[in-house]
Amino acid sequence: GSKPGGGGKGSSSATMIPAWTLEGGVEMPTLALNTVGLSVEDTTRAMTLAVPLGFSHVDFHPGKERDGVAAYLRSNPAARDGLFLNTKIRKPPPGTSPADA
C-alpha cells in the first residue's frame, strides 16, 4: 500500500510514498532517505528537513552517518517511534559462517 507522507507520525505532507505491508499490518516505506557519505552535521540536517516532509525510512551506514542519525534522535526523541532505521553490517571475514554471527 501507500501512505500519505510515508506514514511518519505528525506528517503534514500529502506526498504518497509506496510502502510494503509487513506482518502485523505495519507499513514500511519503500523510499528511504539515504545518508551515504554525509557528515554528522549534514545527516542531522537532512533528517531535520526530510522527516517533517513525510520521510520515515532512513538508510545509513555504521559510521559518521550513524552519528548524525543519533544526533537527530537526541534532538527529536519523539520522532523515533515513527521511523524505520535501516543500516548495514560489516562484511564478515572469509570463512565465517552465519552460525559465527
UniProtKB/TrEMBL annotation:
<dbReference type="InterPro" id="IPR036812">
    <property type="entry name" value="NAD(P)_OxRdtase_dom_sf"/>
</dbReference>
<protein>
    <submittedName>
        <fullName>Uncharacterized protein</fullName>
    </submittedName>
</protein>
